[in-house]
């Protein structure tokens, strides 16, 4: 009788999870039975029958998924003292797995929501990825379908997680800013910052023209910023971010330029601290690193190398070397 009750509870748990997972899917997810042949878009009633599926709708995070390419992937969450996942979909041949955490409240990534919420989720994702030893190159677009029999699926029956609860299990750190290391939601945050900081100043040259022309220029900058990542974001997210930034800055161009002036003042104060000779070689090394990052950001925005050199007060050759080095490393 006890065995029968346990089996019944397991069935109910799996049915409930399948219903929740299906409900949160995009209306027409990317899906595939063989990633070697690419992905296709299908209604979710068809996509749910395929081995791989897009779990998050465009510009909305309903679940965090981590790709663990090790034979002990199933135990990674336990070894890292993390909470039970919502599900694990494991490859029977090599035991590699996708580990999923469903969120109680989905997070919008278009910055219609508060920026600090997106950054908070991005920091949680970064911390969990590091703790699990997950693949940092995983884009998070497609997951092993935990409702498909091709995988060994484990459903844990836990309630969807609040962000604060997930954060209690890890130490949150600042998001990576090196273009070689930025991944996951960190890309959304970095692209948004790159585009909006450019837009705060650039709006002065466009405000006398049409909004459509301004929006096209913002979109171009967003596309360039996205192209710098080793694993770019989907174009739908680039468009959404560009639309959000262009609208806000157009409507609030006075506030936007004030933000630009404020940011320049903060950067100036930081530069003064870094240049303090009492910090010696370490300070100079940090200043050099900061200049290089600024140069790469300006390059992403489409600024010409000569103009970057003038703005940062370094030689043209130095700028060329920094940009060339980034392309080689990418």
Q: What would a concise description of this structure say?
A:
It is built from 12 helices and 8 strands. With about 325 residues, it is α+β, with helices and mostly antiparallel strands.
Report on the structure:
The structure is a single chain. This protein is an alpha+beta fold and 330 residues long. The chain folds into 2 domains: 2-167, no CATH class; 185-329, Endonuclease III, domain 1. It contains 12 helices and 8 strands. It has helices at residues 2-24, 44-47, 76-79, 115-132, 163-167, 185-202, 211-227, 235-251, 253-274, 280-300, 305-312, 316-329; strands spanning 30-32, 40-41, 52-54, 60-68, 87-90, 97-108, 142-144, 152-155. A 4-stranded antiparallel β-sheet has the order 2-1-3-7, with no helix packed on it. A 4-stranded antiparallel β-sheet has the order 4-6-5-8, with helices on both faces. Helix 6 packs across helix 7, helix 7 (211-227) crosses helix 8 and helix 10 packs antiparallel against helix 11. The protein is elongated. The chain starts with a helix and ends with a helix.
Write the layout of secondary structure elements.
Elements: H1 2-24, E1 30-32, E2 40-41, H2 44-47, E3 52-54, E4 60-68, H3 76-79, E5 87-90, E6 97-108, H4 115-132, E7 142-144, E8 152-155, H5 163-167, H6 185-202, H7 211-227, H8 235-251, H9 253-274, H10 280-300, H11 305-312, H12 316-329
Antiparallel strand pairs: 1-2, 1-3, 3-7, 4-6, 5-6, 5-8
